[in-house]
Write a structure and sequence with these properties.
There is one protein chain. By secondary structure, the chain is α/β, with parallel strands linked by helices. It has one domain: 3-Layer(aba) Sandwich (Glycerol-3-phosphate (1)-acyltransferase), CATH 3.40.1130. Helices cover 48% and strands 14% of the residues. It is built from 10 helices and 7 strands. The protein has helices at 2-10, 12-27, 33-50, 79-87, 106-112, 123-138, 167-172, 186-189, 208-211, 216-241; strands at 53-58, 70-73, 93-97, 116-118, 143-145, 176-182, 196-202. The chain has a 7-stranded mixed beta sheet, with helices on both faces.
Length: 242
Amino acid sequence: MQRIIFIVFRMLPWSIYYFFTFKHLAKEKNRDYKRMSKELHEGSARVVKYGRIKANYKGVENLPEEDGFIVYPNHQGIFDVIMMYASSPRELAFVVKKEAENLIMFKDLIKAIGSLVMDRSDIRQSMRVIGEVAEQVSNGRNFVIFAEGTRSKEGNKVGSFKGGSFKAAQKAKCPIVPVALIDSFKVFDEKGIKPVSATVKYLEPIPYEEYKDMKGQEIADMVRERIVKAIEEELALQNSQE
C-alpha cells in the first residue's frame, strides 16, 4: 500500500489524467480498444518508472505474430496486470474475478479495455464468459486468463491451474502463451518504497495442434509445469548473479 500511495502522489498529474480517461472511455458505447491499450501501455510504463521498480521483460518476441491468442500467467497480485501491459506491445483484455470488479478505478479500466468479469460461484455465468472469450479471440482479440483463479499467497510458488480456464482456448482453437511472473508480488506486498525488481517472461506459444487432443486439466498441468520450470530457472539465474 505504501508504494501505491507513493506512485499516485509522485505521478499525481498523470494519476488524475488516467482516472478521468478511464472513466470517459468506460462510458463509450463503441469503445476504442486500441486507444485504451495505448493509454494503458504508456500508463503502466510510467507506474514502473515512478514506482522505483526495475521491470525485466523477457521473451516478448514469443507473442504470436497474429492476434487471436490467450495468455496464461501465474498470478501474484495486482501488479501482474500492470506488468503485463507495460511489457506487451499488443492489445490485451483480461478475465477478472468478480471480487476485483469494484476496486477503485479498476472497474472503469475493466470496461475501457473490454475485459470480462467472471463470477466463480455462478457456473452458468462462468460458462457464458468462457464462451464470450472464445468468440472474441476467434475474432482477433487477445485475452489474459489467470488459471489459478486467485493470486498465490506464497510468493513465487505457483498454485494449481484449473482445467476449466482452458476451455476458452479449446473453443477458439487458438495459441496458448504461458507466462512466468517472478517477484511481481514484492512490488505491492512488501512494505516501504525501496527499489524492487520483478520479471515477466513470455514462453513459447503452444499451438492448437499440440493440445487439441488433450483434456482441460491435462492442458492446465502442462502449462503450469512450463511456468514453474521458467520461474525456477529465473530464480537460479538471480542467485548466481548475487
